[in-house]
Design goal:
The protein is α+β, with helices and mostly antiparallel strands. It contains three helices and six strands; from the N terminus they run H-H-E-E-E-H-E-E-E. The protein has a six-stranded mixed beta sheet. The N and C termini lie close together (10 Å).
């Protein structure tokens, strides 16, 4: 549920679609993907259901991984994703999002073998059930 909401926020923005010209994907990108592109995935843990004793809400950590030909390009795309997602409130893909909060960078790296830079950012998403 939360991945589809984040996907729709990024995919609905024309500027992000242009910047992430290879596409936005959930969990995996196709083998023939072109850079730059974005992959979204959820933290492996289950949703947090008791934070702050709030009824009818769940929290989920989402990773937004941006890929480009170098780290600088991945950082530029990551900054755009952060601008769109940090402090987001509203409804996306039918999911009522109370807030989406930037939690920090998980990874910043360059893979010499695959010739791509990557930046992974973590966001905490609170949504109404």
């Amino acid at each position: 549920m939360s991945i589809s909401a984040v996907y729709s926020i990024l995919n609905a923005d024309a500027g992000y679609n242009t910047a992430s010209s290879g596409g936005v994907f959930s969990y995996n990108a196709p083998a023939d993907v072109t850079k730059p592109y974005t992959i979204l995935f959820a933290d492996n843990s289950g949703p947090i259901q008791s934070q702050g004793n709030a009824a009818n809400k769940e929290w989920k950590d989402i990773i937004v991984a941006t890929f480009a030909t170098d780290v600088a390009g991945a950082k530029t795309l990551a900054a755009l994703a952060r601008t769109l997602l940090d402090d987001y409130q509203g409804t996306a893909n039918g999911v009522a999002i109370e807030y989406c909060k930037y939690e920090g960078v998980e990874l910043e790296d360059y893979d010499r073998e695959l010739k791509k830079g990557v930046v992974e950012q973590r966001f905490r998403l609170c949504y109404v059930l």
